[in-house]
């Protein structure tokens, strides 16, 4: 029997635990011995690598985060620590890795593979959905549902007090979470890094809306825009003439019960990752596109910017 390991790297997402559960189950089905690497690349260096059993994944499918931990490892950037990681894997006879993470993690594994020959298949796992080459990253649906629930609750108090609320989502330099949330939650304004904006373009229209009976506004902004959320809120008070509040959703977007869709996607990602490694996809990222699941190279995924779907951007412009 061959040995295979899995690790989580970078920010955690809801969907990682369902992936871990199915990793153990599908590995056994493929006559592989599954191992967990605890605490990401740091665990590779510190030899936190343990054989995984069914009992290790019992009762975790409904839990957010990751049971085996994650990290952002500075040490893994140093070759002497990557050599230690390789030696730890060699001792256990592990030459295949499934990596749940983002493009930074993929670049690290690319270097590791070229140096050590440790084969890997990467699964895009970030709520930002900012990885090129894939339309969907594990954890995105759960994050969107957290945002939806939060905005629906904020609308209750916004309408009661006749206020403007500026809700800030995560996303780094990618506006996907803010864009989809604005479209599906009926926001009056959405500001994302991908679209230039000028507050003056909205002043006359928003004042007219107030005059015609609008008594609250919901604005969704991505954390990567040029202005702070407080600046947007101040604009509503000073220029539009409505009391305003800021809500920064922050890390609640990463946690919570994984949605049905993320649980299902976790299973599919794991199947393709393990099947790919067994079929000699030795250095790849499994991506989900309009054509289904496809294997792509690190160069294609990690070295090019992510562009938002033009159809979604057109829907925003139609609001």
Q: Summary?
A:
The protein has 319 residues and is α/β, with parallel strands linked by helices.
Helix content: 40-55%
- Reported by name, the CATH topology of the largest domain is Rossmann fold
Instruction: List the helices and strands in order.
Output: EHEHEHEHEHEHEHEHEHEEHH
Provide the low-confidence segments as ranges: none
Please give the CATH architecture of the largest domain: 3-Layer(aba) Sandwich
- Mean of pLDDT: 96
Main sheet specs = 7 strands, mixed
Give the termini separation.
Answer: 56 Å
Work out the count of structural domains. Answer: 2
Taking Cα atoms only, what radius of gyration do you get, to the nearest Å? 22 Å
Number of strands: 11
Figure out the total of helices. Answer: 11
What percent of residues are in strands?
A: 15-25%
* Spatial arrangement of strands, main beta sheet: 3-2-1-4-5-10-11
Structure write-up:
With 319 residues, the chain is α/β, with parallel strands linked by helices. It folds into two domains: 2-139 and 258-305, Rossmann fold, CATH 3.40.50.450; 141-254, Rossmann fold. It contains eleven helices and eleven strands. It has helices spanning 16-29, 40-46, 79-91, 103-116, 140-161, 176-185, 200-211, 229-240, 260-278, 298-302, 310-317, and strands at residues 2-8, 32-37, 49-51, 94-101, 119-124, 164-169, 189-191, 217-222, 244-248, 283-289, 292-296. Strands 3-2-1-4-5-10-11 form a seven-stranded mixed sheet, with helices on both faces. Strand 4 (94-101), helix 4 (103-116) and strand 5 (119-124) form a beta-alpha-beta unit. The N and C termini lie far apart (56 Å). The model has no long low-confidence stretch (mean pLDDT 96).
């Amino acid at each position: 029997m061959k040995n295979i390991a899995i690790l989580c790297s970078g920010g955690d997402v809801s969907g990682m635990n369902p992936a871990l559960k199915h990793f153990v189950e599908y590995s056994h089905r493929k006559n592989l011995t599954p191992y967990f690497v605890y605490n990401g690349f740091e665990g590779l260096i510190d030899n936190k690598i343990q054989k995984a059993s069914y009992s290790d994944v019992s009762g975790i499918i409904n839990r957010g985060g990751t049971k085996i931990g994650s990290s952002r490892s500075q040490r893994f950037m140093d070759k002497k620590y990557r050599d230690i990681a390789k030696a730890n894997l060699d001792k256990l006879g592990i030459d295949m890795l499934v990596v749940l993470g983002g493009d930074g993690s993929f670049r690290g594994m690319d270097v590791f593979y070229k140096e050590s020959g440790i084969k890997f298949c990467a699964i895009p796992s970030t709520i930002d959905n900012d990885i090129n080459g894939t339309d969907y990253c594990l954890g995105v649906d759960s994050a969107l549902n957290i945002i939806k629930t939060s905005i629906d609750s904020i609308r209750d108090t916004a309408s009661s007090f006749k206020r403007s609320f500026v809700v800030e989502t995560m996303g780094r330099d990618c506006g996907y979470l803010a864009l989809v949330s604005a479209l599906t939650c009926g926001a009056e304004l959405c500001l994302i890094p991908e679209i230039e904006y000028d507050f003056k373009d909205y002043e006359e229209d928003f004042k007219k809306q107030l005059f015609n009976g609008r008594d609250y506004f919901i604005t969704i902004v991505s954390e990567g825009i040029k202005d702070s959320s407080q600046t947007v809120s101040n604009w509503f008070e000073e220029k539009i003439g409505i009391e305003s509040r800021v809500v920064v959703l922050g890390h609640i977007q990463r946690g919570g019960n994984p949605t049905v869709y993320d649980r299902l996607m976790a299973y599919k990602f794991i199947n393709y990752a393990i099947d790919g490694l067994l079929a000699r996809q030795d250095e790849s990222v499994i991506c989900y596109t309009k054509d289904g699941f496809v294997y792509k190279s690190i160069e294609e995924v990690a070295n090019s910017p992510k562009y938002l779907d033009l159809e979604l951007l057109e829907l925003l412009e139609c609001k």
